[in-house]
Amino acid sequence: MARLDGPRFGPRTGGPARQLVVLLHGLGADGSDLIALAPHWAEALPHAAFVAPDASEACDMGPYGRQWFSLQDRRPALMAAGARAAREGLEAFLEAELARLGLPGSALALAGFSQGCMMALFTGLRRATPPAAILGYSGALLAPEALAAEITGRPPVLLVHGEADDIVPVQATRMAESALREAGVPVEAIYRPGLAHGIDEAGLAAGLRTLQAGFGAAPDA
């Protein structure tokens, strides 16, 4: 399995990283898409390193971009199996990045958009050391029926979804919110009227608040 890699940003201070934020892109994109979020958050998290790995597979639904797993067949069991297979490479990448920066697993946060949200939730809730926070934008919770048996921690989770999303229906996040609450995971869910498949300023601001709280970072830390 090829080792993941992708664009990086920070820490803004230029000194050693105290936190690591890993940004997971959606279907048909790559790491350069989500690394653009890093400057928005780095002003308030100047000691955080950001990295947005390119998914391991070429997208099979178009001529460009990457995918974490195929969505040609969207039956829940097949998508869960795809995420489970992709998790192996992602876990190896997370461990390598933490080791490179000399950070413990508790200094990690995961943020994902669309298919990347699916991967962030699937991976983050199963890590031996739970991440400081998980941010999920416009995605879904895969394999909710397996969560009770497989969950290893209950990190704070932020879910944000546009109510006008015609790519991933907002109901996917409503179902994820319900399943996570049932599993005892602390969840904040924000539903944005009129927002399509994307991330707006309110979602970015909520993400920053969640990262700061998860890392225990003061506004200027």
From TrEMBL:
Coiled-coil features, chain-numbered ranges: none
Phospholipase/carboxylesterase/thioesterase domain: residues covered: 15-205
Name listed for the protein in its UniProt record: Prolyl oligopeptidase family serine peptidase
Record's keyword annotation contains Transmembrane helix: no
Family classification: Belongs to the AB hydrolase superfamily. AB hydrolase 2 family.
Gene Ontology MF terms in the entry: hydrolase activity
Superkingdom of source: Bacteria
The entry's keywords: Hydrolase
